[in-house]
Amino acid sequence: MDEEAEPFLAMADEVSEPVTIGRAVHRGLQLGGRTVVLVVSGIGMVNAADAAAGAIHRYGADAAIICAGSCGGLAAGVAVGDVVVGTETVNVEAHATAFGYVPGQTPGMPASYAADAELRATLAGAVAGVPVREGGVGSGDKFATADIALGLREAFPALVSIDMETVAIAQVAHNHGARFAVARAVSDLCAPDGSEFETHIDDAADRSARVVIAALGAL
């Protein structure tokens, strides 16, 4: 979302004019001593996959992809403001157990998508004083309110957080052999409505961006 992109734009030394590819908006940035491209995908799995494929096509599979922004906290002990650095990501919408696949596994694809070890380690240790939780990340096409979160906790007990984009980006990266990692900050704990998210989205976006930018300087 634009709210999730704003901290990157505010902290960049240079920002190029935007280029639109499909629905995604691309801007070249100077950040953390590195030249990067900020891609605002739009919300949801299809928008995210389209944006990731467009980025890989434009910049090549050698460019690492880091997914940033906000997420909902699922695991016990996760707090609003924590930054979740994913170890792996799962598609919580996929359910083909009738054919022998595990919950979250799309037929013909891995059960989950592991984050690149170097990117993950760098993100996890990038900023002192920012609480970081490492663990599984889930994604689906539903905003996870309390009733949805209850089912997710039962079906996917290892997940730390939930969002609407990460696994789509991870699957596209997997398909193209691109390195992938995720660092998203918890904006809400899957409350009954979206009010908690709306209250904390700006702070979550800022924390995620600070971790990613610090990691860029260390890579």
List the helices and strands and how they pair.
Elements lengths: L1 H10 L2 E2 L3 E3 L2 E8 L2 E7 L4 H15 L5 E9 L9 E9 L21 E2 L2 H8 L7 E8 L6 H10 L3 E5 L2 H11 L3 E9 L6 H24 L1
Parallel strand pairs: 5-10, 6-8, 8-9
Antiparallel strand pairs: 1-3, 2-3, 3-4, 5-9, 6-7, 6-10
Helix pairs in contact: 1-6, 2-5, 3-6
Entry keywords:
single chain; 219 residues; alpha/beta; Rossmann fold; five-stranded mixed beta barrel; four-stranded antiparallel β-sheet
What does this 3D model show about the protein?
With 219 residues, the protein is of the alpha/beta class. It has a single domain, classed as Rossmann fold, CATH 3.40.50. The protein is 36% helix and 28% strand. The protein is built from six helices and ten strands. The strands form two sheets. Strands 5-9-8-6-10 form a five-stranded mixed barrel. Strands 1, 2, 3 and 4 form a four-stranded antiparallel beta sheet that branches. The mean pLDDT is 96.
Walk across the major sheet and give the strand order. Answer: 5-9-8-6-10
According to CATH, what is the class?
Alpha Beta
Helical segment tally?
6
β content, as a range? Answer: 25-35%
Give the structural class: alpha/beta
Q: What is the straight-line distance between the termini?
A: 25 Å
CATH fold descriptor: Rossmann fold
Low-confidence parts: none
Q: Could you tell me the number of beta strands?
A: 10
**What is the CATH architecture descriptor?**
3-Layer(aba) Sandwich
Using only CA atoms, what is the Rg?
A: 16 Å
Please tell me the overall pLDDT.
96
Shape field: globular
Secondary-structure element string = HEEEEHEEEHEHEHEH
Tell me the helix content. Answer: 25-40%
The CATH H-level homologous superfamily: Nucleoside phosphorylase domain
Tell me about the largest β-sheet: 5 strands, mixed, barrel
State the domain count: 1
